[in-house]
Queue: 3 jobs
Job 1
Amino acid sequence: MKKTNLLILVLMLSTFLAACSGGNQFDSKVEQEKATKVINSVLTSFEDEEKLAEAKTRDEANRIAWKKIKEKNAKAISKDLSEEGQKHLLYILTFNKAEDLPNGETKSNLLFNQSAKIKNISLNETDKKFTFDLQRYEIDHKLITLEKQEDVWKIVKVEDPE
């Protein structure tokens, strides 16, 4: 009787452990859908050609626009994204519509751009990171890498393709 109870206990414990470990498996299709949803939400977070910033120089306008993009996409952008990565992301999401002023100066207007499209998606299975190749106007493109942080897919790196 004791052996039977022990056997049942062992079977129940092994079934429980198998169920628990099965829940932690990485389903690449499901995770790719989630990561793609994050990228698409960033790409459509403002209206197309919506003015994000206006300043005397493009650098000033970039800082204003980045603050708005970061606030609106706080859940999608990692705190680890480098300053260079921020510049690359800003580049793919905006365009500068400079305006000459009557006094001879120029005003920089940064407008949101929804023309960036996903060209390709690749998975680094070892690191469990997705890299999206985003293309804008069929000539410009950037590689955007997402990794799961705090159970949410976040942009961790934006770079030029090699």
Job 2
Amino acid sequence: MVKVRIFTTKPQYDPTKPLEDAYLNMVTRSNGNKRFFRTLMGVLSIFDREDLKAVYELVMEKYQDEIPEGFDKMLWGDLIIMFNQGDTADFWDEQLNWKIISWKLHSSSGVHTIMTSNGLVIHMLVENRYPLTKEVLSQLLDLKLETEEESTMALELIKFVKQQLEEFEDSDDDDLAKSDHEEAERV
């Protein structure tokens, strides 16, 4: 396990770059190596799960009394959705509008990411069950899971998504049988 320290920095202003490119998060590992990133996507392929948890804890501690702004809010929001999906019920209610265009696995951190046509990026831990709708699960299975290499984790993730979809279908079958039974009792 490596210790990480995270803080937001604003490098020297460069008039050739957009202002939003100036705000970066920096992670310093205990060995002195530094990584700069603007979004969570920037570190998912180089962090392991312990690093990711450490960043989550540091970000939550940093913003325990205030809500961040700008790119900091994006990182904070991504981590909240990933680790505390129960606290984000309103976010998951918007799934009817999602058209998934990409599904990627980051094996080193154990996170899979979906991207929608309107630019929404959702990061999820592979072993967690998120309140995804039947339609979103179907869209995922219609796509090819992108991964750096073939792995057991990728196969297990696909099986997990299939299992969730089957549970929806079984539930639909049970609901149909129940309504048929209730209709027969009324007649």
Job 3
Amino acid sequence: MILAIDIGNSNIVIGGIDSSKTYFVERVNTNHRKTELEYAVNIKDIMDLNGFSISSIEGSIVSSVVPPLTEVILSAVRKLTGSTPLLVGSGMKTGLNIKMDNPKSVGSDLIVDAVAALKDFTPPIIVIDMGTATTVSVIDQNGNFTGGIIFPGLRVSLDSLSSRAAQLPYIGLDKPGKIIGKNTIDSMKNGILYGNAAMIDGIIDRMQEEIQMEASLVATGGLASSVISLCRHKIHYDDALLLKGLQILYEKNR
């Protein structure tokens, strides 16, 4: 089993995985104030809670879109395992052809998602990753990463609305019932969830029109499960997509 870690702006995803199975997937809040020791304790606690010892880790890999925390997490894993993790970045073998204006500017999370999607789905593929930002990426029929869009994530949108309107409360994002809300909280929740679902449906339609083909559709990310079930397109949800991509990259580069 390898330890796979993705450092995101809101959450750090920590998982145990090998080529045949995902053993666990957990999330902790991204906290710039934590030390490498505190993160090492977090990782060890997660493994203990899932019934695994540090000795079961054969190797590790990290991807990050939060540069100030990258070395902190690398050091935390080193402290636990005694070895330095692989880091997704420039120079790593991905097998992915990135057709962008500046390929080096593409976020490591998008690359990792694309690598995993290409293993499990037939291109063209549209990959939706819902976190702090929602990204929708396109892989063409030849397996090339050709671009996508980025827009504010659910929680960012909701927090912005609540903080800027005194009478609109902070709310949860549990699954709504009817789309027409009968009170302020339901109206806000429905607006965020159904609004994002409709936006994703519309984006998929326009992207498929542009590539002139129907695409395989896959979604991941901590908030995706709240929205994908409300979409009219049939979208496969894979909570461990990013970890699967990290496992593939580990095998390619170890």
